[in-house]
Specification:
4 helices; globular; eight-stranded mixed beta sheet; alpha+beta; Glutaredoxin; single chain
Length: 153
């Protein structure tokens, strides 16, 4: 396993958070393109609905990161009653550190954007599992199964 890159970003309330704040816990860190878009809303709501089960697995936390603003994150959380932290990374520093800033294509146009990737970080701050280009529909269930396996190991 390799060390998870540290980050220091503001959450939906403007409070600064870093990887060190989650030491001793399993962390599900997911990167997504944009608040309140269809795929991102599906993924966020699935994590919301699975949050209690995830929390029971080693006191695990869920954190979403996108380049949306603190204010946009607060609106997204309030609109969908999300029960986990969203971090704002407008300069895409953490997004790049986790190799989730990629060249994307949409309707013949190329641009740089956030890839939908997730990382499970161990209580000692190492990347235990990574998921690249995830499907937002069934991803939370996949995380639950893998957290069970990782904790049993």
């Amino acid at each position: 396993m390799k060390p998870a890159p540290d980050f220091r970003l503001a959450d939906q309330d403007g409070t600064e958070r870093s990887l060190k704040d989650y030491a001793g816990k399993w962390l599900v860190l997911y990167f997504y393109p944009k608040d309140d878009t269809p795929g991102c809303t599906t993924e966020a709501c699935n994590f919301r609905d699975a949050r209690e089960v995830i929390a029971e697995l080693g006191n695990a936390e869920v954190i979403g990161i996108s380049k949306d603003s603190v204010k946009a994150h607060r609106k997204f959380i309030d609109k969908y009653d999300l029960n986990f932290t969203l971090l704002s990374d407008p300069e895409h520093v953490a997004i790049e550190a986790y190799d989730s800033w990629k060249l994307k294509k949409f309707m013949g146009r190329e641009y740089m954007g956030t890839e939908r990737n997730t990382f499970i970080i161990s209580p000692i701050g190492e990347i235990a599992k990574e998921y690249l280009g995830v499907d937002p529909k069934d991803h939370a269930g996949q995380i639950i199964n893998d957290l069970k396996t990782l904790q049993a190991a």
